[in-house]
Design a protein that fits this description.
Main location: membrane
Helix content: 40-55%
Oligomer: single chain
Membrane topology: Multi-pass membrane protein
GO molecular function: ATP binding; ATP hydrolysis activity; ATPase-coupled intramembrane lipid transporter activity; magnesium ion binding
Strand content: 15-25%
Structural class: alpha+beta
Protein name: Phospholipid-transporting ATPase
Catalytic activity: ATP + H2O + phospholipidSide 1 = ADP + phosphate + phospholipidSide 2
């Protein structure tokens, strides 16, 4: 056999965002389909050179190039589930997506294409689309185009741009533009109603508060940028490495990074401390994943000593882009041209781990690095209440226009009636008598004729009545949301002790949406389950080792290995099967023992796991911690170690495995990493006995297509049966195979691999082809079953959500049997449900299946019931829809979507299996686009990001798959079960509080406007005001603002215990009981009555008196403040000391402010309050106004609560009088939950 000069370790490109091994369903009927497949000839499997040379590549990568197998649905016969009914619809035809379809059609939800399907590796980089980087020559690199320096800036503003840019951004709120126009109009002499300065203050106050907040946040960003830019790195200058600030690094410079250092820019690796050129990096700051990833330097640069040997070359790479998983380039070095890929670049923000040093050349710097290009946050979302509030603001705007029109028209009529009296009328004075014209006439004094007078009166009315649109509402809502977020974050019931993570509120503007959720779309792995994989059982050579008599974890000692005088033990213990452990330790060379040995060798070697050793209290004992990109791989390696096959060292060129106390070194001759087309990974090992073996593991459907099914047909059948039994109990399955390569076969593979890995065009497709060719004619070793346990409290959480009228849909990439099993254990599925299963392979079969399913659902769920009941109705049989991703390929983005929606809306549960990330988003869009229901998506991985961002509310789980979901989410938490207190408690509270606050703000401002309106009708429509300018301005800032905010943060209509005990109470938010059009109009009618009582009682009381108008203005001001605050006090449900202080303190503060204003001689109405308040009539008027204004509201509240109580009131009474028999016996009857109408 030819001696290997260097390890061939250029990995196949990994699928972006999908590092986990895939798991596809195995069905009982697949054995037949396998036997029908023709056996691949050895010539086909190994004639690689000719195939690579003659490979014709299309313009776009062909999707689903790996073997597609027709799967029929399986009807479960598990004991205990015989009462379940299942209706299965399966298609037989297979549809292939060719490259032409991909090139012509945009990415759609139904597409199963992964992002790497659009890789640029299919084509050469044009000079126009390329960046030229001259190695170790930054001057020449930046000569033609000066690339970005390495200085970064995350701050939004500078000292010069802060004011104009911040003001511009704030005026994106239309209401601010409205108040700006009002302030400008008030500056005109003809329209000046308030003082010119006073009219600007409310808007200036709101803008200033927001500007101060933005300035502080930006100051923190500036400070962080400064620290980052002034960090130091070692840069090669004049053949010596010298320290240089990060901000001064240029593209083309060579940089040296030491262990545990962060990378200052995006670099192509040139050499590392490892002789084979491997480096390990941690990308937690980039994509949130804490597992180590491997990167490689090319051998052409690895062998150079850069400090002693001058290096020069040219890198031709793609222009900066956001794709952190892709990179295409080629490098000319020493007259050779080599290709570069994602495994040769390390990105800014990564940390170097387990490598003493690494040297690279900067190719992207500063704002052009992939980390900075991906620094944008999640898309902004607006709450539904705020959207509805805008509708009411438009109504109020029309209302304002109506009031202004009435005043201006009446003013025109009044002018016409009194046209002969205008010249000498006191306080009007049409004529200017100060100057006499030559003809003896006098000019008009500020009089512009009927038309302009009416127009000016209209504009002045807008200025006077401007508070009808509550500017303070926006800032009040922001403050209330901050307070609500504080209490959600501090809630110990949503604290996850296992991960030491609190609830995170990443989007403050949709807190209240948590109280209106109708659909929950959940991922399975890591969301419903722990994503902490544990090896559970194995099928080896057709024998099932299911661990039924496994040794208890507390009793087992665990495997250990002696290396260099130290004892190495795996960090995590694994329960072992005694029989399998005995066979693994026997050391015999019998057939079964040999297969067991090869099986565990495959588990230990066929992965990208990096073993790290950590110290213990005993200096002679060290723990081995296996770090990898996939929890599945970690579980398999720990299992191999438990059975005596312990991985203790990995480099790019070899691995060391302790096999039952004997250390064996295996040369890693080649590694084909997992990709989405093959759904497999393989490693080619040079074994100690000089043989060369290829070990392969992958999804069962992809593995059975490459196994030589002419060998051991009985083993294949037994393995498939075991796979089905594993998946039926919720285990994740994997198939292991191998074969031995002859010397000629290895040489052919080696030649083809080198040709493919150095190709400049179509490298990814060529490498996949080479991998597929060597992964053929395999001998099956067995299969593994990995358990992913349910998170604590998941069944109870799903049951509570269902009782709350929330539909829970599970969207998972796992196989159907596994998902169904988890569905039962989580109580998502029950034995009483009728299951409708759709597994189709063509559009026509999907159409027929949907039609048949709709007929079945209509029989089981009548239309009358489907229109109202959300679940579990006694009138209908509960339905569960189970559909796979292949069917969704044909349904989504087609006319079949409507049929799917009609079917799904009749079902209590929907379970989507084998779905791609875009399909998850498509399912969410299916509901969002066809209903007014609020949607929530929850997930923990990168494949859930699209779904999270599509839903109205997105929640990320701080799990094992990194933090991509958290970074894209609106809220983040540690466990799925926290969804119950988040929605049923905090969501309910937030919705009730914000709903009431919006209505109260409309009411509060409208009362004042109507008082001003009544006054205008009694003052000849001159729009003079009895209230001082300062009182009008302080009304929304001091007099009434604080109580609104305090109540909006602290008030509780029901206790936590009651809300959790009766989940049906959550339906109040779904039915929009807290805020709707009816409530708005009822509030407005109440406003008209209260304003009339406030205005007309003092008018009648002081009708024939000589009281000053300023005194009446003070009376009206105090009356309005007292009434609106008592109105609020009547509705407060939970009193705290701060609530008392806010409400009664606001009334006292109003008295103080009115007295201070009237004490200032420079202001209008000097000493007016003290004159009018000296009489008993003043205080009697305040008392009479309060009683008359609030009495109708009080009567209506008593009547409605006594004769027509709602669910909230019933539960509140039960909560208050906890000793009632009805409460003790749980006999509180709540209203049924109905679906809102469809669009």
């Amino acid at each position: 056999m030819t001696t290997q000069q260097r390890p061939l370790l250029i990995p196949s490109p990994r699928t972006p965002g999908a590092p986990e091994l895939p798991y596809t369903p195995a069905y009982a009927d697949q054995l037949k389909s396998i036997s029908e497949n023709p056996k691949p000839s050895s010539g086909t499997g190994m004639d690689i050179n000719s195939q690579v040379d003659n490979l014709s590549l299309p313009d776009n990568i062909t999707l689903n190039s790996s073997s597609q197998r027709s799967n029929s649905s399986y009807q479960s016969r598990a004991s205990g589930r015989n009462s379940m009914r299942e209706v299965s619809f399966a298609g037989n035809s297979v549809r292939e997506l060719n490259s032409g379809e991909l090139g012509k059609k945009p990415m759609r939800y139904g597409s199963r294409a992964e992002s790497e399907g659009l890789s640029m590796s299919q084509k050469e980089i044009n000079d126009e689309d390329a960046r030229f980087v001259y190695i170790n020559d930054p001057v020449k690199t930046n000569e033609r185009f000066e690339f970005a320096r390495n200085s970064i800036r995350t701050a939004k503003y500078s000292i010069i741009t802060f004011l104009p840019r911040n003001v511009f951004e704030q005026f994106h709120r239309v209401a601010y533009i409205y108040f700006l126009v009002i302030a400008i109009l008030n500056q005109l002499p003809q329209l000046a109603v308030f003082g010119r300065g006073v009219s600007v203050l409310p808007l200036a106050f709101v803008l200033s508060v927001t500007a101060v907040k933005d300035a502080y946040e930006d100051f923190r960003r500036h400070r962080s940028d400064k620290i980052e830019n002034n960090r130091l790195a070692w840069v090669l200058v004049n053949d010596n490495f010298q320290q240089k600030k990060w901000k001064d690094i240029q593209v083309g410079e060579i940089i040296k990074i030491s262990a545990n250092d962060s990378l200052p820019c995006d670099m192509v690796l040139l050499s590392t401390s490892d002789p084979t050129g491997v480096a390990y990096v941690q990308t937690i700051n980039l994509d949130g994943e804490s597992n180590l990833k491997t990167r490689y330097a090319k051998q052409e640069t690895q062998m150079k000593n850069l400090e002693k040997e001058k290096i020069s070359g040219l890198i031709k790479c793609e222009k900066p882009n956001r794709n952190i998983y892709g990179f295409q380039a080629n490098m000319e070095i020493d007259g050779k041209r080599v290709s570069l890929g994602p495994s040769n670049i390390v990105l800014r923000g990564c940390e170097l781990k387990n490598t003493r040093w690494a040297i690279g050349v900067a190719v992207y710097a500063g704002r052009e690095t992939k980390a900075m290009l991906n620094s944008s946050g999640a898309p902004s979302k607006r709450s539904r209440l705020e959207t509805q509030m805008n509708r009411e603001i438009i109504i109020l705007s029309f209302f304002l226009v109506a009031l202004c029109t009435i005043v201006s028209v009446c003013a025109g009529v009044w002018l016409r009636r009194h046209k002969d009296e205008l010249d000498n009328m006191p306080f009007y004075r049409k004529k200017d008598y100060s100057e006499v014209e030559a003809d003896g006439n006098y000019d008009d004094y500020n009089y512009y004729g009927y038309g302009l007078e009416i127009f000016f009166t209209f504009l002045m009315s807008v200025i006077v009545f401007q508070v009808m649109i509550p500017i303070s509402l926006y800032i009040s809502m922001e403050l209330v949301r901050v307070g609500q977020a504080y209490f959600m974050i501090r809630d110990t019931n949503m604290y996850d002790a296992s991960s030491n993570s609190r609830f995170q509120c990443r989007a403050l503007n949709i807190n209240e949406d948590l109280g209106q959720i109708k659909y929950v779309f959940s991922d399975k792995t890591g969301t419903l389950t722990e994503n902490k994989m544990e090896f559970h059982c194995a099928s080896i050579s057709g024998v099932d080792y299911n661990g039924g008599t496994a040794i208890d974890e507390d009793e087992q000692v665990g495997y250990s290995a002696q290396v260099d005088g130290q004892v190495l033990r795996p960090k995590m213990k694994v329960k072992v099967d005694p029989q399998l452990l005995s066979i693994a330790k026997s050391g015999k060379q019998a057939d079964q023992e040999s297969r067991v040995r090869d099986f565990f060798l495959a588990l230990a070697a066929c992965n990208t796991i990096v073993p790290l050793t950590t110290e213990t209290a005993d200096p002679a004992v060290r723990l081995v911690d296996y770090q990898g990109e996939s929890p599945d791989e970690q579980a398999l390696v720990y299992a191999a170690a438990a059975y005596g096959f312990m991985l203790i060292e990995r480099t790019s060129g070899h691995i060391v495995i302790d096999v039952q106390g004997e250390t064996h070194r295996f040369n890693v001759l080649g590694l084909h990493e997992f990709d989405s087309d093959r759904k497999r990974m393989s490693v080619i090992l040079g074994c100690p006995d000089n043989s060369v073996k290829v070990f392969v593991k992958g999804a069962d459907t992809s593995m059975f297509s490459v196994i030589d099914n002419s060998l051991n047909l009985d083993i294949l059948g037994a393995t498939e049966a075991h796979l089905h039994s594993y998946s039926s109990v919720g285990l994740r399955t994997l198939v292991i195979g191998m074969r031995e390569l002859s010397a000629s076969e290895f040489e052919q593979w080696q030649s083809s691999y080198e040709t493919a890995s150095t190709a400049l065009i179509g490298r990814a497709a060529l490498l996949r082809k080479v991998a597929s060719n060597v992964e053929s004619n395999l001998r099956i070793l067995g299969a593994s079953g990995i358990e992913d346990k349910l998170q604590q409290g998941v069944p109870e959480a799903i049951e509570s959500l269902r009782m709350a009228g929330i539909k829970v849909w599970v969207l998972t990439g796992d196989k159907q049997e596994t998902a169904i099993s988890i569905g039962y254990s989580s109580k998502l599925l029950t034995t009483q449900m009728t299951q409708i299963v759709i597994n189709c392979k063509s559009k026509e079969s999907c159409r027929k299946s949907l039609d048949d399913a709709l007929i079945v659902s209509q029989k089981l769920v009548p239309d009358s019931v489907a229109a109202h009941a959300t679940g579990g109705s006694s009138e209908a049989s509960p339905l569960a829809l189970i559909i796979d991703g292949t069917s969704l390929v044909h349904i989504l983005d087609s006319e079949l979507e409507e049929q799917l929606f009609q079917l799904a809306s009749r079902c209590n549960v929907v379970l989507c299996c084998r779905v791609a990330p875009l399909q998850k988003a498509g399912i969410v869009a299916l509901i969002k686009n066809r209903t007014d229901d609020m949607t929530l998506a929850i997930g923990d991985g990168a494949n859930d990001v699209s779904m999270i961002q599509m839903a109205d509310v997105g929640i990320g789980i701080s799990g094992q798959e990194g933090r991509q979901a958290v970074m894209a989410s609106d809220f983040a938490m540690g466990q799925f079960r926290f969804l119950v207190p988040l929605l049923l408690v905090h969501g309910h509270w937030n919705y009730q509080r914000i709903s009431y606050m919006i209505l109260y703000n409309f009411y509060r401002n409208a009362v004042l406007v109507f008082v001003l309106f009544w006054y205008a009708l009694f003052t000849s429509y001159t729009l003079t005001t009895a209230m001082t300018d300062w009182s009008s301005m302080l009304y929304s800032i001091i007099y009434t603002a604080v109580p609104t905010i305090v109540v909006g943060i602290l008030d509780k209509d029901l206790s936590r215990r009651t809300l959790l005990k009766y989940p049906q109470l959550y339906g109040a938010g779904q039915r929009e009981e807290g805020y709707n059009t009816t409530l708005f109009w009822v509030t407005m009618m109440d406003t008209v009555w209260q304003s009339a009582a406030i205005f007309f009682l003092p008018v009648l009381a002081y009708w024939r008196s000589t009281v000053d108008i300023s005194g009446l203005g003070d009376l009206w001001t105090l009356a309005v403040v007292i009434v609106v605050n008592l109105h609020l006090a009547m509705d407060v449900l939970r009193w705290y000391w701060i609530t008392h202080a806010a409400i009664w303190g606001s009334i006292i503060a109003t008295f103080i402010c009115v007295m201070i204003i009237d004490c200032l001689p420079s202001l209008f109405g000097y000493w007016a309050f003290f004159k009018i308040a000296g009489s008993a009539l003043f205080w009697l008027c305040l008392l009479g106004i309060t009683v008359a204004a609030l009495l109708p509201r009080f009567i209506v509240k008593v009547f409605s609560q006594y004769y027509r109580p709602d669910d909230i009131l019933i539960a509140r009474e039960a909560d208050k009088f906890g000793n009632l028999t009805a409460l003790r016996n749980g006999e509180i009857e709540l209203n049924p939950i109905f679906d809102p109408p469809r669009r």
